[in-house]
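REQUEST ID: PR-0412
SUBMITTED BY: lab tech R.K.
PRIORITY: routine
TASK: structure prediction, single protein chain
INPUT:
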Amino acid sequence: MKILSIFRIFSKKDWHWMQKFIESPVFNQHEPVQQLFRFLRKQDLSNDISFSSDFLHKKAFRNSSFDASKIHHTTHYLLQATENYLAWDEWWNDEAGKGRYLLQALRHRGLSRQFEEQLHKVGQKVENQPLRHAEHYRFRYELALEAYQHALHETGRSTPEQLQEFTNWHDISFLAEKLKFACGIFSHQRFMQQKIENDLLPMILAYVESKPELLQYPAIAVYYHGYQSLSNPGEDRHFYALKEWLADAAGLFPLPELRAVYLIGVNFCINRINLRQEQFLREIFDLYRSGLESEVFLENGQITRLTYTNIAFAAMRLREFEWVLHFLNQYREHLPEVQRQGTYSFNLARFYCEKGDYRQAMALLLEMDFDDVSHNLTAKAMLAKMYWETGEIVALDSLLASFAAYLRRKRQVSEQQRQAYRNFVYFLKKSIALPPGDKAKKARLREEIKGSVLVAEKEWMVKIHE
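STATUS: complete
OUTPUT:
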C-alpha cells in the first residue's frame, strides 16, 4: 500500500497533526477513514508488512460484510487526505507563501483595500527579513506579479512603474536562479554520463558582465563569481570576489545553500593546492575558519569525518598548532558517533607527528585500527616517516612489508592510491638499501622520485634525499 510508505516516515508531530486533520470535517467526511487511520497509527509500521483488504475492511467497517469496493474507496480517501495533509503542512510552515496566497484570494474576491494593505504588509515583511538568496528574489517577483494583475483587474491597465518593477524583479529572479543552477550543474557534471545543455548561460554571463550594477544583489554576485571560479579554476579574481562576499554572507543565505557556496571556494583552493600553489593553504584555512563560525560545516549538528580531517590538515600545514588542537577537541563531539574515536585519534596522531612529538603520535597510531581506508593508508605512511626520522630501520623494514601486503589485499583502495603508496614503499626500501655516504646514488634516487607522477608523501621523500 502506498499509504504505508508515507506513514513509515511520519514523525510524532506528523501523527499528531494528521489525526487532527483527518478528524476535521473540512478535510475528511468519512468516518471509516478515521477508523482506518486510528488502527494504522497503533501499528508498528517499521517492518515491511502488508494488510489484506479483508483485514482492513474489518477495521474500517466493523460489523459489515466484506465489500471490496468500500475498502478500496476508503484507502483511496485516506491516501488523498494524507497527501492533502502533507501539502497543508508545507503551506502552513511557509509564512511568505501564506501571505502571497492571501493576496491572491483578496484579488480574486475583489477586496481592493484589503489587497493593498496586505501587499504593503507582506512587502515590508519580506524586505525586512535578512535572506537574500535566489528564492527571495523570486518571491519579490511574485509579489510584483500580484500587484500587476491586481491593477489590470481594477482598472484594465497597469502603470509604467508597476510594469517596470515587475520586469526588474523578474529579471533579477531569473538571473539569480539560472546562475545558481549553473553552479550546481557544473559541480555535478563530472559525475554524470550525460551532458546537460545550458545554452542560455553564455548570454547570461555576458549580460551580467555588461551590467555590473546587478552584482549588488547577493544571489547574483555569489553565483556569478562562483560559476566563474568553477569554470575558470586558473583565474583568481572571481575566487577572491566570492571570498569577499562570503565574509558577509552569513544570514544572507539559508545554511544548506551557504554550505554549497562555501564548497565552491573550498574546491577551488584544493585544486590550486594540488598544483603546488601553497599560498592557497591560507585561503582555504580562512574559508574553513569563517565557515565554522557560521556553522556551515555542521549538518544536523554533525561534521563529516572528511571535513573534520581536511580542516585539521590545512591548519597543521600552516603550523597553526594551537588553533588546530582547540578545533580537534571542540568539534570531536560533533563527529558521527561510530567514527568519532578513530577520526579524533587519527588527527591527534597527525598533530603530534607534525609537531615532531613522535612518541605520542606512534602510541596513538599503534593502538588504533582505523575503519577508513584512507586513514589507514595515511597512518601507515606517518609511521613509516617517523621510523625513518628516528632511525628505527628494523621497525621500518617490517612495516613496509606489512604495508605492501595491505595494498595487495585491500580491494577498497583505488588504483591511483594503490600506485602512489606502492611507490612510497618502493622508494623507501631503495632508500634503506642506499650505501651510506654515496651521494651520487642518493641524487639519482632523488631525481627518480621527482620524475615519478604518483608518489605518496612525495615532498617528504624528495626532502630526505637532499
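NOTES: The mean pLDDT is 91.
REVIEWED BY: pending
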